[in-house]
Design goal:
The protein has 71 residues and is mainly alpha-helical. It has a single domain (2-65), classed as Butyryl-CoA Dehydrogenase, subunit A, domain 3 (Up-down Bundle), CATH 1.20.140. The chain has 3 helices and no strands. Helix 1 runs antiparallel to helix 2 and helix 1 (2-24) crosses helix 3. It starts with a helix and ends in a 6-residue tail after the last helix. It binds flavin-adenine dinucleotide. Flavin-adenine dinucleotide is lined by residues 45, 48-49, 51-52, 54-55, 58, 70-71.
Length: 71
């Protein structure tokens, strides 16, 4: 449960930071030379391969409520 909470929080925060950085730079945010788009795509991989955010949320929810909502 603690590992899921850490993965859920870190990947969610990283996605938000990368998205904010891209927004801050506007048009320049999607130029590869400025490296923001690269971080955005890198963090998308983390969002999936460390266990998807949805599955982490299901694990956290089961730990808190004792009820499993897995399909
Ligand atoms: C860049 C990259 C590197 C990888 N490297 C490795 C590696 O080295 N070793 C390895 O073993 N694997 C690796 N993987 C695979 C990775 O572990 C899987 O992609 C990941 O576990 C998600 O599985 P999936 O892609 O089959 O998606 P699925 O499990 O098919 O998920 C699809 C969608 O359904 C949702 N979902 C899945 N199950 C449920 C459920 N029970 N209830 C509700 N929603 C659900 C998910 O959240 C997601 O939104 C890698 C993946 C990537 C993208």
């Amino acid at each position: 449960m603690q590992a899921s909470l850490a993965k859920f929080t870190c990947t969610r925060t990283a996605r938000a930071i990368a998205s904010n950085a891209r927004d801050l730079l506007a048009g320049n945010g999607i130029l590869l030379a400025n490296r923001v788009a690269r971080h955005m795509t890198d963090v998308e991989a983390l969002h999936t391969y460390e266990g998807t955010e949805t599955v982490q949320a299901l694990i956290i929810g089961r730990s808190i409520t004792g009820i499993s909502a897995f399909n």
